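User: Continuing from earlier, I have the next pair ready.

Assistant: Great, send them over.

User: Here they are, in order.

Assistant: Folding the first of the pair now:
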Amino acid sequence: MAGKQTFGDLKYLFIRGLINYEKWQRSRHYLKSAAEWTSRAIVSLELTLHHIKTVHQAMRLEGIGRGLGDKLKDIISKQQYSEAAPHGSQYITSAAAILVTLLKLTHGRSLGSSDTAWIPEDILKYESQQRCEEKFLKNTNSGFCCAWWWIEILINRQFIKRRLVKKVPVYELLPLGRNIAVRLLE
């Protein structure tokens, strides 16, 4: 195979690099909107089931445009982050961990036609933390937790539904989110 260059899966390298980039963006108030787009791109990378071998492949995913494509090229050239997949049943970000956790917490429950499994936020946070590399911050100066922010993206993409029951946030895994969680477990 002379002349052919083989590429490994760059998905995890890109995710780790973009997480660090997003934290940098969030430390600058004027880049808040850009940080939200970076968050969407990270979720797209985490939830894709395909290997990402080039920046061009990554740019086909939702939320990754030319600007983030340039950042991905920069991440490859610096080689500061690991390309290794997370250990065991772990995920890099809490986005995949939240979906899988909701699936596992609702799996054992028998659901009737009108009965829905709603999982309280504190249980979801605790169980999701056990499945991801990313740490949930309890007390931050800004009050912002990047790990929990992914839930907003999952809600916007209609993978999860949130509602308040007696002023306590509870979450339901929607069919689209259930399909992705099942595929993540395979």
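And the other member of the pair:
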Amino acid sequence: MSGVIDPTQSEHMSSNCYPLDRPAREPDASRFDKSSSAEQQLVDLRSAAILRLASESDCNLLLIMPKVDFGIISQPVNEVFLFPGEAILVSTDGPTSTSARIASRSLIVGLQRQRLEPHAPDLDETFMSPIPANTLALRLLSHYVESLRGLQALAEPSLLSIAASHVHDLVALMVVTACRAYAIVNGEGVRSRRLDAIKADIVKNIQQPDLSVAAVALRHAVTSRHVQKLFAADGTTFTEFVLGNRLPMARRALTNPNLIDKNISTIAFEVGFNDVSYFNRSFRRLYGMSPSKLRALSRGEPTLAGA
């Protein structure tokens, strides 16, 4: 990372950061009226006035910083309220749509994920989570970005490159600070609760044949890779968890006397498989026998060795 700020050094942390996964906070009505804010407007993030530090096609993250009024950042599965001085990171990858109701003086910065990930491995943990206004790196970043707006010098490629490096350095420091502050208070609580929510989602939709890591990630407003990382940290994989729920359902159906005449392929489809051959292979790998052999045994019928 360029620059002189090292996000791995704990002395740069703000000790007053609060949890990243706190519930969405309704603004205090005594401070401002959400419905009649004179400066607020619904911003189309695809065409907003964004300070881009790279080409539009290369900017796959947005940093949104309300300055004088609260902000409301919305995605299909999540809505977050921001107070002035706070910030939020949103990913523009994938089909998930994001809308923002913010004041015209708010700062929006286009960033590159690939420049942040080497220095902020928990980057995805901060998506759609407010970064506290008292985070020192955010305060410095806000002042720096404010000074860059409208600066003609950014038309010079060499100066733009330097400014982009500075901004990405500060964002990486902000992310590391926020993640560490919450980890100190709650350990692995954020990841654990997010994984629990994802597992509950999978179980709820386990019989859907189109269940996929991409579909689950979309519903939880994270990336597919982040979902895979959560399962890897738990010592398993997305596929193993899905099979671990579908196959026992199939086994119960195969040995249920009330379903004894139902076709094996029908049972496979009903528990979420869309490929009978894959179902048979997975079943044999887990239970050491084919679905047809288990059914025969449950009927008290003779079976062939190795079936």
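Worth noting for the second one:
The chain has two domains: 10-185, 188-307. The domain at 10-185 is CATH 2.60.120 (Jelly Rolls).
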